[in-house]
Structures are given as structure tokens and as C-alpha cells.
Amino acid sequence: MKLTVWTYEGPPHVGAMRVATAMKGLHYVLHAPQGDTYADLLFTMIERRNHRPPVSYTTFEGRDLGEDTAGIFKKTCQDAYDRFKPQAIIVGASCTAELIQDDPGGLAETMQIPVPVIPLELPSYQRKENFGSDETFYQIVRALAGPVARTPEVTVNILGPIALGFRHRDDIEEIKGLLYEMGIGVNVVAPFDATPEDITRLGAAHANVVMYPEHAETAARHLEKTFGQPFTKTVPIGVGATHDFVAEVALLCGVEPRTDLSRLRQPWWSRSVDSTYLTGKRVFVFGDATHVIAAARIARDEMGFEVVGLGCYNREFARPIRALAKAFGVSALVTDDYLEVEKAIEDAAPEMILGTQMERHIGKRLGIPCAVISAPVHVQDFPARYSPQMGWEGANVIFDTWIHPLVMGLEEHLLAMFREDFEFHDEAGPSHHGGHAPKPVEGGQPPAAAQPPRSFSAKMNEGAVAGSAQSHEQTGSDVMVWLSDAERELKKIPFFVRGKARRNTEIYATERGLSEISVDTLYEAKAHYAR
Amino acid sequence: MTTPAKIPATSCRDAPILKERGQREVFCGLTGIIWLHRKMQDAFFLVIGSRTCAHLLQSAAGVMIFAEPRFGTAILEESDLAGMADAHEELDREVARLLSRRPDIKQLFLVGSCPSEVIKLDLARAAERLTQVHAPHVRVLNYSGSGIETTFTQGEDACLASMVPVLPATEARELLLVGALPDVVEDQAVSLLTQMGIGPIRVLPAPRTSQTPGVGPNTVFACLQPFLGDTAAALTRRGARMIPAPFPFGEEGTTLWLRAIADEFGVDDATFERVTEAPRARARTAIANASKALHGKTIFFMPDSQLEIPLARFLTRECGMEAIEIGQPYIHKALVAPDLDLIPTGPVISEGQDVDKQLDRVRAARPDLTVCGLGLANPLEAEGLTTKWAIELVFTPVHFYEQAGDLAGLFSRPIRRRALLKLEAAE
Shortest CA distance to A35 belongs to which of B25, B320, B11, B319? Predict the structure, then answer.
């Protein structure tokens, strides 16, 4: 039993729904009690889908339990076929139905349903949403894709985009564009907008492009083994990764790595002097592994940031994330515990978070700007405009998105110069964000730093720390005394670097065995850490 | 009664009910935690369930309430499913950890879910045991919010009903208002009744454990929500008596609800008139303004919040709408009969759901407004049908006089918006 407040991933059947909802002509019959239909609104509200997810729920009740829940499943399955006439059906159980062991796959097999029925085994008490999507897509591919003749011209399949994905809709267009420039055709895009009939033609492609390993890696491995189709390992998010992707695809397909860079503006935007202020900004990166791996590289190599922490919530990818963290000289945070992530971010005191909607809330609480790079998603992550993450346009989009939450270069200097101006002070936040009205300030003094709320989670963290061995990280202000002059001086430092200054000073003092911090200590530490 | 309600010659009270079984597009009772945990400020709701339960709570809120969540899910894992003794020990450990972190918690609800019920985890026994462990500081109660036992707002009923057996006994003649309403609305109700000289007035659930009401043979109670059947039954078992009335939606509903209580307490007509006259007039004006777009329009209720029958009464009688179908997840006649009495025969009254068949009826009728859950709203809009999300009715202050106009506004806004948007080329 594990106490959970917020989750990064839903149960595995939600992953299966994301595949089913992305496809056309497929229906999912889900053995589940009343209430599990809540998942429909993820698609109709967050993603603004204009149709119901193609899912029929058996909706069994307590009084059915001693009786014929299997019969309810069979009726639902038959009704779903008769009403929707899908090309194929996937069947499975949600967490509760798993416990009553009706075996939806076995039941469906005994029925005379004239289309392929694919059983799903998604262990709800062990695995999570991303496992569900990957496994479901694999089972569909395994059941439907048979041997077919290769296309005479060079074509690839594009695998991985699903419903409720972070910018999947637009990433597909970027990938198609990159392939087009190399003269490579697209055989099938799946699961997004693919029909079961399309899946049967997967074998005709010469190779596979895996957009999101979280959702398509197992299927790609199966296709490699069965049809000898190699698949791409590079995810083209960022300038460098997109160059690598073009080279990789060209090699797999035996074509020239041709690409049109005329649309790519990111490198100049990053080199131009206005971006100097981005240098060494300390960022914390957290999300699904694929987006974190890409974002860490962009942050360091293409923005000039310093990555001070990184991690992912999907344990399946713990190994590559640990390797990446090692390469960046930080320790990897592999956890799906929101409170642990919050604690790690609080400790690292970054100037910016690149995370999910969950980290956006952490940032709000801690007063740290955040740009979203990964699922889990929010209605805001489905913009009406074209806004990919992949390819050349994706690189442009990411540059804009990431700098938007930050205070801009010259403004940063002005804040430092006129630190006691009653209207133009750091608590007012970046001036291009309307929401931050300057707070009224009494007596011309800059307002005290907003205290991070001592909330439930903070208390839980304290409990957790107190319970574990208290060997490390006793650097908090509990043991270190800031003299009042030093504390006042610290408040004059703009908020976006104040956390770093406090932390560096305390580390500096600890290393020297000081128990009090004076104004001198503050500036000695500053000189010590100056770059 | 100052203005007797016009009771139609043939009302929906005895109309045949269309009972359906099939796929239900409704939330389970866990959803009630979203508003209950804000109402009871020293209570914590611990769901014993699966990742699905945690995901539901996070998603159903629409927005994630990251500030001070006073609820959480103890997620059952593979090892918990193996042996029962294990699960109880695990639960004790999680509760002890939680309570040591949250010394402000006085009341802990262990909330049962579909998986905890299927594996027959005895939460009543756990609550008893944990109460002994953590008494007197914390009282531990349990109820089921599972989808196999409860739908959506029924979770609040189960929660309140679980509190009734442990309410202190009292012989006092008191009025008990039952149901979790936004504070502003509750204050209005209490103020109106107090002005009539009615009191003392107590509320269930109380905002803090220290304000817990008593119950006994001299308690009379009025429900604020139409989904509190089990709570009403539990209070009756404790000797209290229910004051039946239509629910306080709209000017008429509020007046009839207040009048029923006033009659119980022997309030004379002049006093009743003096207290209600001004707010009634305001409510009428506000409804008249907000309901212009609703006159002569048809409405179809998919079963969702359990508020459907009282709202249909308000919309048909005070806003000039015509109801085509009024669906509720389940119909508790003892509570909604006074509302059904006021709705003339005509609309289909349905209980339960087979969502695809019901959607066929919606498409055939093409109502001007369909009240439905969030999973159905955008798909119906895409078919050209105007919708109103039911969940907003539970999260928004809509009861009593001062909110009557807002309530009408919730229904008219989607219709006005559809009329407002010009998204085609000018010809």
C-alpha cells in the first residue's frame, strides 16, 4: 500500500484507451465498474476531441458480483460490435474487473464476432499508463500485421503518436516533412488516425521511425524481428537531435541526408546577443524519459543553460536516464512520487523548471518559472496553433516556449540596479506577464520574499526526512544563522537568483565550519562561486 | 401558505419510470471528496483503492487542486492482494504516518473503493480499530465511494450517513440542515430562517468537528440536496423527523422549502412575508433577466448529479422551458416526490442508463439544451447540440434566492453563446 496524492500516470487501461482513441475503426470493450467512464473526459475535455472515445464499459455493479458478470461482458461486447461495426476489437479489464477474473479475452473468443478480437493483459496493480499504451499497440501490431510485399519505393512507418500525447498531432507533420525532403514516403502512421486495416500493411515499409519509445518501442522491436525492419533510436527534438535523426534515417534507408534548414531560426536566436542572459541559467528537467533526454541536451548545448537536476517518472526508462544524469554530472531522480520531485526541486533551487503540468504547480508554489516539456498534459497543452516539438519548427517553438517564463535580459539588470523601486521590483515578476501586478509596498522597502507555503507536502517531506537517516543536507537555515544585515542584503538580490545565492552561501559557510553568515560571508561566497 | 404552488392536475409523481441498464456515463461516489474535503476543514479522506481511483480524483476535479489536499489514495499493490492481514497492517501504518504528519486532522474517513470492496477489505473493522488507537484526538469513520455501490453525488450521502451513528444524542428541539453547501449559501439559508425566529439551527456536515450537531427525538431536519436518502434514513433511525419539501432551487423552490420549515416552527404568514418579500422579488427579477434565452426551449437531462428532477421543476416552471426527458441515476421517491408533484406529465422520467440508447433518443429529439457529463459534452456539441455540463451544478453556488438568477444563467449561457458566435464567412 502506498499513499499517493497526485499521480503522473494513470492505470494501464488508460494507456490502452489512448491507443484506441487515437485509432479509427477500432473498438475497446472494457470490463469495468461504473465510474471508470471518467476517463472519457480526459479525451473530450483536455484534448477537446469531438467524439467519444471508442470504448464500451460493462458497468457492472455490486449486486452483479455474485451473479453473471461474465454474461454482462459478453452482452456489452456483442452490443458494441453490432452498433459500431469496428474492423477489430480489443478487450480487457480495468483494476476491479481484474480481481473478479472473468477473463474477457477468453469470453470474447467463445463469441462469434466476425472481426479480430485482441485480448489485453494489463496488470493494474503492477504497471501504469505508459506500459498500457506500449503493450496495447504491440498486441494490436502482433495480431494484425502480417507479411506483405515491400513497397517498391523507399517508405517508412511512423510509430508512436497517440491520443493525449504532448504535441503528437503536430510532431507527425514535422516528421513527414523531414522524410519528404529525403524522398522517403510514409507507409503508415500509427496508432494516430490508423485503422486496423492500415496496421495489416505495416510490413510493407522499409524501416520504422519511432517517435516516442514510451508508446511504440515494443511494437518496433517486434516488427524488426518479424519483418526485418530496422527502427530509429534518435528522437528528433532539438537542433542537434534532428540533425542526428536525419543522418540516422538516411543511413537506415540508404538515401542522401537532405534537409531544408531555411525554416530553422533557433541557432541564430540562441547566438544573438540578446540571448546572452540565458547563459548558465540553472534548470531542473523532469518528465517522461524521452522528453527529458531531449530537453537536457537542448538545455545544455542549444540554450547554454546549466542542468542542475534531471529525472523521469516512468521507471521503464530508468537506465537511460541514469546514464544521462551521469553524463551531466548530476544524480538521476527516478520516481513517480510528486512530493519527492517537489523536494528535489526545492533543494536544487533552480532558476527554471522544464517539467510537466505537475512541475508547473511546484514552480508556482516555489516561485520558480516553469515551461512544460512532457505529458501528463493539461488543456493548455493542446493549443489551436501549430506547435510541434520535433524537427526544425519544433526547435524554434521550444526556444520561444522556454524563454517565455523568464525575466528578459535587460530587465534582469534593471531589477538589480533599481532593487528598491516600489513599482519595478522583482516580486512583480517578468513585465511581459500580465498576471503579476506589483504588490503594494510600505515605506519604500522591497517586500519580503514570499514564503514557500508550509503545506501538506512540505510537512510530509519533513516527516519523510526525519524518518530517514539524517546524514546529509543539513544545510537548511535551521542550523545556519543568518545575521540580520546579511539577511537584508540577501533580499536585495533578485528573486530568481536569491535561492542560488542562499544555497551557495550556506554551502560555503558549512565547508568553512561557520555557524553565522554575515554580509562578508555572503560576498565571499559570491566571489568564490563567480564564473 | 402565502402563495400556494399551482399543483398540476396530473403530475410526474405517478408517471411510469423508464428503467434502463447498460453502460453508465457517470462518476463514482469518490468524486464527492472533491467538495467534501473543502467543506470539512479538519477532516482527511483516505481512499483505499487503486491507481484508477487516484487518477479519477485528479482528473474529475478538472483542475488539480494542489493547495493543501486533504485527501489521498492508499494504492493497493500486488502484495496487498495476496493476504488480508497484510492489508490491515499496511493500512494502520499508512494512517499512523499520515496522522503524525497532519496533527490538525480530527476526523479521518477511510473511503472504500471498487477494489477494496471486491477483495472484501473490512474498513468498518479497520475504522473501529484505528479509532481506538488514535482516540480521543482523531475519530476514524468509513464509507463506500465505490462505483459498484455509489454514483457521483451518492458519495456525499454515504459520507454523511456514516457520521450519523456517532453524532451525540440530544433532547433539544433543533433544526438540522443536511448537505454540504458553499458557505455563502449556507449562511443565507441560516440568516433567512433566523430572521423568522427559527432556531437553534445546526448543520451537517459541520465545518469543524467541534461544531458537530447532536440528534434526537426532538430534532427536525431538512435536506439541502436531493441525493441524501441514506442520510435521511439514518437520521430517522436516530429519532429525528424529516421536513419534506421541494428543494431550494429558484424562487418557488426556495419559498416552498422555507415555508415547509416555517410551518413546522409555527411561523405566521406576516413574518414569513416580511422576511422573504425582498429576496423573493430580487430572485424573480434575476431569473427573468437570466432566463430570457430559455423561454420555449427544450431540455434533455442525462442522468448525472441527482439534481435533475428539482432542476427540471425550476427550469420548466420558472424559466419557461419544456423538458423532454429527465434522467436520474436513481430515483429516491421519498425525497423528490414534492418536486415531481409540481412537474406536469409530459417528459419521460428515466432511471439508470444505457448511454448509447439514450444518445439515440437525444439525437432523435434534438433538444435545444442537453445536460450531461463532461465525457459527452464536446461530442454532442460537435453534432450541433448545445450542452450544459452537469458537474458545474455541483461546484457552483446555485441554491436559494440570491443564486436563483445565477442558476438560470448557467443554463442560458451555452444557448446565448451559440447565438453569439459568427464563425462562418459573411455572405
Answer: B25
